[in-house]
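Q: I have two molecules that I believe assemble together. Could you output structure tokens for the complex as a whole instead of separate predictions?
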Amino acid sequence: MSEPDPDAEVLLTMTGIVKTFPGVRALDGVDLEVRAGEVHCLLGQNGAGKSTLIKVLSGAHQPDGGVIEWRGRTATLGSPVAALNLGIATMYQELDLVDGISVAENIFLGHELATFGFPQRRRMRNEARALMRRLGHPEIPAGREVGLLSAAGQQLVSMARALVHNARLIIMDEPTAALAADEVDNLFRIVEELTAEGVAVVYISHRLEEIRRIGHRVTVLKDGRTVAAGLNAQQTTTNELVNLMSGRMVETVFPKRDVTTADETTEVLRVEGLTRGSEFADVSFTVNAGEIVGIAGLVGAGRSEVLETVFGARKADAGAVWVDGKRLRAGSVPAAVAAGVGLAPEERKSQGLLLDQSVANNVVLASLPEYSRAGFSERGKELRDSRTTLERLDLRPADPRRIVRTLSGGNQQKAVVARWLVRDCKVLLLDEPTRGVDVGARAELYRLIHELAAAGVAVVLVSSEVPEVLGLSDRVLVMREGRLLTEAPASELTEAAVLDMVMEGSEVMA
Amino acid sequence: MSDLSERSTVDPEPKPDPEAKAALESDPVQTGPAGGVRTPSGLRLDIRLAILIGVLIALCVVGYITAPDTFLSESNISTMLRLAAAIGVVSVGMTFVIISGGIDLSVGSMVALASVWMTTLATQSYGMFVMIVCALAVGLGAGMINGVLIAYGRVVPFIATLAMYASARGLAERLSERRTQVVTVQSYLEFFRGDLLGIPVLIWMLAVVYAIGWVVLNRTTFGRRTFAVGGNAEAARLAGINVKRHTAYVYALAGLCCGIAALMVVARTTSGASTNGQFYELDAIAAVVIGGTLLTGGRGTLIGTLIGVLIFTVVNSIFTQNNLETDIQNIAKGVIIIAAVLLQYSTTRTRKT
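A: Yes, here they are, computed for all two components at once.
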């Protein structure tokens, strides 16, 4: 790997970047310096602020504070077009291509070469062909519809789109996530060619081995701040990187689970050999009454898919789920609900709630037959039971008539949990229960989850935040790329060890 | 989206968040007395309802001024309501469909098919009871086909009901050979064209259908599921509701309403014809939308729909009373649709800010 010139021009300097969203300080003083011709890796846990930083850099978000200098001059990245005009191009993780039009049209989308409004098709096709050749894939026809290409092919189109603007800085957000091994090699070859020409690459990946292979310098983000800048990508140890990403500066609010309420003798949930397409394979675990089992893993490791399959919202290809010794019908949510399983889904708003309806309507949604006589709703009973449950969950104000949209994130989450409590569920599946929830409400949710377990509910918890999983659970399952990697009591695991497993496999397990 | 736990202090006292508090203060419905929980957002719909009633009254005043002798006469009111009956019943089914997040373009054709089927010589030979059952069964059957195609065949509602729109009317033309089939069963005509307690039977039917529709929508699990499926189908599914089955039921219900409407049309015109129910889909959708039901689903009221239907009826009456051309009438209808919808948007917007 060629060393970049230490005296190379500093292309980009970001100093003290702050970006606040309602209720969240996503960036809280990020510094980043990128030189021409280097591969600069951004590292950080989920929620550390990488995505927000990219969006600021690509002009999609405007920072609330801080200074951005581009080639020595203060710059304002007011819009994606402004960023492109300066020479900053972005390849997003979610490909931003239009499926129904050709490769060439996608590459020039929004910047069509045209004379008097008439597109110069031939010129665009020729240039697109030249770009695909340069990217090592001359076999992809410029006229092919993008929707017909493989994921790797689409990735290349996305990259061609960055190149066509003669970008001096290309941001790549997890470019290898969708690629097979040989495609990754091709991508890296292209990245090396680009850097040799003096183009800088800001590279985001969860895979440390990739960072070792092509990275020059590393900047580590944590909780919206730069905790280390300009580390040598080759010489910094994995241990050191993981510690930087996980090291907590202040004591956390994650509760330690001192006393377990698990009842070892009563198995409530048994999952055996659950497999579903390319999402996950051969997942087996059990949960006892009163036990909290956490599933740790990166986004995309198959955690949410496992929960939804247990719940019947997705149909398993193989394997089975038992609740209280009875086998659930595969792919049937009503069967799971009837057996006493509840799910608080990952996307609270789009999957969990009727936002424009009252809390009571949301709470009884899974129990409409129980709250009716001969098909007629029993409003009185609904309101009474909802109110009791809201009080139990400390949802304030405990007014079952409030419209759910007006509640805070934490209270909305409680409303989803309340839906399963009114029907005395035995198994509660919680998918990212604290996402978008502020700190005070989090502490309450943690207390609530412990109380539910104490009441005998078997809880399965999925979270991207490793300390949350470790702090809440009795046992932890670690998932990576659709497989269960490890199962261990939470007390025997450390944050660094889990992070290392989910990111790299096992290198520094010892 | 990020764990910022370190930098914020933990507040042991869970504080009511300011946004929620503000909403509480600005919206009396949420703290109001028990009993008024029929609609998910009572207050807004009440304002809309007030606007709609205001528009209806204003139109009646216009009618009275332009035709002071006849407009508010008993016979004109009776005529207006009898004309409104069929489209009113169709609009009940349409309201359910639209609240569930769908659309039904085939209602007019289903009315035509049911009216033709119930008035063929063969059907009429069995008498009044069979005619009624036949109309209801044809409507229900066609609606079920819509529902199954949409729910289980995953055909988008627009396309599935567009196909029914074309084929049901085609079948009606074939059955009737495009001839008007006069009703010869006197008992049928006597009953449906008669009065009950001094009020025409058709108006009773309209009232009963709305009453039952209101109860089903607001007081039963069926209604709750309809709101849930239209409000957030995925959330309803993940709460264990059989979304597909419910969707199929809703379209079947719309078909059943068309069967009832066919009974009314046949009674009013004393015949069945493949040209019955033309443009009912447009009138029904317009009435539902004017009534404040969101085309995106999840929200709506039957009372609003009823007033929407009445508004159109009154406009029609004003024009016929004053011998104005139907082309002007259609222009007026278009203006009313847009005005009503814009007015409702403006009330929603002011509330949000």
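A: One point stands out. Chain B has one domain: 46-352.
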